[in-house]
# Entry
Amino acid sequence: LGFLLAPLLLSLPAQDASTISPFPRGQAMSEAYSVFAEDAEAIFYNPALTVYGMKNNFYLNYTSWIEGTSLLSLAYRNRLARNFAVGFLSTLFVADGIETTAAPGQTPFVLNADGVWVPITGAASFVEFNFTANASYLLPIRQLLFPVGAHLKFGKYAYNGEGKLRVALDLGGM
# Structure
């Protein structure tokens, strides 16, 4: 079975910075936060859940991990009606001048903007910017309310200055 799945696994892209949570509560729960998120946090975790929460909120966070890496995030959620909310999330991840080390005889690789694995030589820089627009709605079906939502994401990541724009649409429901 592993022999049959190997080509599929080798074609999977590397994890990008957009999967790093900009919200400390979600990070503290090891990213197991998609059911509990509400307000602006739900924009990252589950597009359907921004409709929950009673107040509008604004969120700004700056996180610096190791030297040369940082994550800046800004989120806003507005509950326009009892059953409708909109919001946005913007994140900027920067890793600049990162030196890589590898075991003797090994060369570290990174997935570049064209989706090609290239060897890393010397210091490398990586920048990723993402913007997510969100809308969620409580859909009434036979005296029950089902949250549904959508994200429209725009992002650009760049490795050593070269990058590509990407667009994604996520749909969610509970």
